[in-house]
């Protein structure tokens, strides 16, 4: 998972030195040819952010519907059974994550999956759930009866 922007630079504040304050300069991206490990912690954080974006049943229902083709907000509200404002908030999250696109047509907006690879990911997740007997629901940290925070002490 790359964390670089289109210009090939890592985004975010960078400190000039240990005794200088953080500035808003952009640091050059790590060249994988020079440092094959790259910034593993940052890559893991980006991966975790992707899965947090997918970690909502409403967003998954929206993505499942969009897997069949583009849809308008009104169609998605019918699919998920929630208010238009709630669905719009979830659509904004999915757009901000880069997972869906929006195509205006007149006064309407049509939403679609941004990448076909997302279907592969969702299909693989379903296969994994089937293979594990859906044991994840029993997990005290992430399962159906868990609290919102990670309560592990390891």
Question: Which features does this protein show?
Answer:
disordered N terminus; three-stranded antiparallel sheet; two-stranded antiparallel ribbon; disordered C terminus; 154 residues; 5 helices; 40% helix; 14% strand; alpha+beta
Instruction: Report the end-to-end length measured between terminal Cα atoms.
Output: 26 Å
Helical element count? 5
Largest sheet, spatial ordering of strands: 5-7-6
User: Helix fraction?
Assistant: 25-40%
Q: What is the H/E order? A: EEEEHHEHHEEH
Class from secondary-structure proportions = alpha+beta
Q: For this entry, what is the oligomeric state of its chains?
A: single chain
- Shape by Cα distribution: globular
Mean pLDDT: 78
Low-confidence stretches: 1-28, 150-154
- What percent strand? 5-15%
Described by strand count, sense and barrel closure, the largest sheet is: 3 strands, antiparallel
What's the number of extended β-strand segments? Answer: 7
Whole-angstrom Rg: 19 Å
């Amino acid at each position: 998972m790359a964390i670089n922007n289109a210009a090939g630079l890592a985004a975010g504040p960078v400190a000039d030195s240990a005794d200088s304050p953080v500035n808003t300069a952009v640091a050059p991206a790590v060249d994988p040819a020079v440092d094959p490990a790259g910034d593993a912690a940052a890559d893991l954080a980006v991966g975790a952010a992707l899965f947090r974006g997918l970690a909502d049943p409403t967003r998954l229902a929206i993505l499942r519907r969009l897997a069949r083709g583009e849809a308008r907000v009104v169609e998605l509200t019918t699919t998920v059974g929630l208010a238009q404002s709630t669905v719009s908030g979830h659509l904004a999250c999915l757009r901000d994550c880069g997972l869906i696109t929006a195509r205006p047509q007149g006064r309407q907006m049509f939403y679609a999956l941004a990448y076909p690879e997302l279907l592969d990911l969702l299909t693989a997740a379903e296969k994994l759930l089937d293979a594990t007997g859906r044991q994840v629901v029993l997990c005290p940290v992430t399962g159906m009866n868990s609290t919102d925070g990670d309560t592990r002490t390891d």
